[in-house]
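Box S1 | Example of a co-folding query
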Amino acid sequence: MAATTPQNAGLSAVPSYEQEQSQARFDALIEQDSRIEPRDWMPEAYRKTLTRQVSQHAHSEIIGMQPEANWITRAPSLKRKSILMAKVQDEAGHGLYLYSAAETLGTPRDELNDQLMSGRAKYSSIFNYPARSWADMGAIGWLVDGAAIANQVPLCRASYGPYGRAMVRICKEESFHQRQGFEILLALSRGTEAQRKMAQDAINRFYEPSLMMFGPPDEQSPNSAQSMAWKIKRFSNDELRQRFVGMIAEQVKVLGMTLPDPELRFDEETGRWIHKELNWDEFMAVIKGNGPMNSHRLERRREAHREGAWVREAAAAYARKYENSEVA
Ligand code: BYC
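Box S1 (continued) | Returned holo structure for benzoyl coenzyme A
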């Protein structure tokens, strides 16, 4: 091995002509607002942060099925039950599109799944809170899916093709979810005193956690600046949170309910919504695995995975049997 001299020190860090060309092509595609596709060269850090974000997003969809699935058998009518079942199935579909998008970046689904089940991967903080009443189905649809739409519509323009395209369909379905949640709350708000109280209690519990879905404040968000430069994220966490607060501040009036935030107001001077200081210590505890439902959610996911082993085996056996045949 050649000795390192002052002349050749750091030589390996100098990019080759081909690397420079690849980087220039990547930069040009980002600059032109074009899409990066799986076949394209991309910087390792771009691949890594996308795998992180897309897989966390997929995990959120899959874990996010639990709080609502928990209410399917207790839905107050057959119609409500079938709507809720369809919604929960939609979330499973979202998870599958997103795992497929993540796989195009080179990490197999089994590995992503292991990261989730072993507790190494993050998923959205919101799903570590319990769904205590039927009104929570309304609050989750209105606030949680509402926050998801505000966050995800700009992701339809994410620079990575498979992610952006997956988001288009997901957003269409999320719009339906948000309306069904709002409609549940509207029905309760026009009901008995006990039903109104139940709706208000659900709104009170989900308000702050839904604002936290957008992530930490901009100055504490380590990934935002680079993700925005790469046009994965189009707006910062605080910008999207602002947009969402403005939306729900108006919609809550239609419900005849209130948001649990005495400080909430629109500041004409800055053109910004002022809301109460969110409890970021609680947020950090939840994303580190210490929220009220973290261990329950992960245990339930592992159990479902174990119970599904026979389905995976049967599907693999079927695929092997017909691998080289024209029988469908
Ligand atoms: N919860 O630098 P930051 C749904 C993490 S599911 C947990 O700002 P980034 C639905 C973040 O990952 C919708 N972790 O990060 C399903 C990072 O950690 P690492 C889920 C969070 O990525 C079923 C660290 O904190 N939506 O709608 O630039 C039923 C620093 O943050 C959270 C998505 O996944 C959080 N809330 O921005 C009903 C949207 N926030 O990885 C409904 C896609 C931050 O550095 N994701 N962290 O260790 C995104 O848009 C972005 O990843 C985020 C965070 C805005 C969430």
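Residues 1-11 have pLDDT under 50 and may be disordered. DSSP finds 13 helices and two strands in the chain.
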